[in-house]
């Protein structure tokens, strides 16, 4: 997730046992121009494998060049974004715009597959709009050019992130493919992940928003499948402690100024639903430095213990 699954959050998710992590999406053009901000997005050094690097773009040859660079950096899998609905992405014929241009989408996949040795996967939505559904045909064509798995978000582009993901199209697409279909959309709790596997017959589940401020979704899910016991959700103290650990890592990675600011949204997610959360969130959003945020979180932890 762009702006969310940076190196520091990936390390938190890894602590909770998430078995397959993806980078934020990375522009093919920025990669091939050697843009320095982009090199930070591509920094997967020291991280356990497998790890997926996701790229987005619109030109098959530029995407193929970007894929080669990503492979050289040590990606285990290269994922092509065909789902992002953001206007600034779609305007450049990238992300979910490719669902409207199936020939281009297939050509991008074909050239990327040919350019690298590592497996290539595609992340996509069910279509642009209810009148322009592209499953299962486009996934089948992607499979035919060598794509090794498809992640399907059960929404159309025009839904953005609202409404309900259509799991029956995930089921229908899983049945139409020989390669693994990874289901995505509206997995908020461990129960939803198992329900998606059962209801759709998909091979795996991708969790996005359900992990924001909630890395326990992975540890609880994994623990549950191993022991048959679903652990309770984290306590207020555990959530704040996790926020402190995450804060320390993001500051180590990005420096105090950026770390403190980029951490604000993560802390809002960790604190969501706790007593007095909105006041603490407001204070954190005004806090200028690392020590002030630590003091605010420590104080909130003390108060919530009583
Ligand atoms: C803040 C945010 C950033 C996202 N960034 C990406 C991205 O970089 N690449 C991608 O394939 N999907 C991205 N997504 C979409 C998610 O991967 C996922 O498809 C969508 O949120 C539906 O799954 P969920 O219901 O589990 O959240 C993003 C979603 C959000 C909310």
Summarize the structure.
This protein is α/β, with parallel strands linked by helices. Helices cover 50% and strands 13% of the residues.
Considering the chains and any ligands shown, give keywords for the structure.
50% helix; nucleotide-binding; tRNA-dHydroUridine_Synthase_C; TIM Barrel; 14 helices; binds flavin mononucleotide; single chain; Aldolase_TIM; Non-ribosomal Peptide Synthetase Peptidyl Carrier Protein, Chain A; 306 residues; tRNA-dihydrouridine synthase; alpha/beta; 2 domains; tRNA-binding
Protein described:
The protein is α/β, with parallel strands linked by helices. It folds into two domains: about 220 residues, Aldolase class I (TIM Barrel, Alpha-Beta Barrel), CATH 3.20.20.70; about 70 residues, Non-ribosomal Peptide Synthetase Peptidyl Carrier Protein, Chain A, CATH 1.10.1200. It is about 50% helix and about 15% strand. Strands 1, 2, 3, 4, 5, 6, 7 and 8 form an eight-stranded parallel sheet that branches. Strand 7, helix 9 and strand 8 form a beta-alpha-beta unit. The longest helix has 19 residues. The chain is globular. It starts with 6 loop residues before the first helix and ends with a helix. The mean pLDDT is about 95. Bound molecules: flavin mononucleotide. The site of flavin mononucleotide has 21 residues, from loops. The site of flavin mononucleotide (FMN) has 21 residues, from loops.
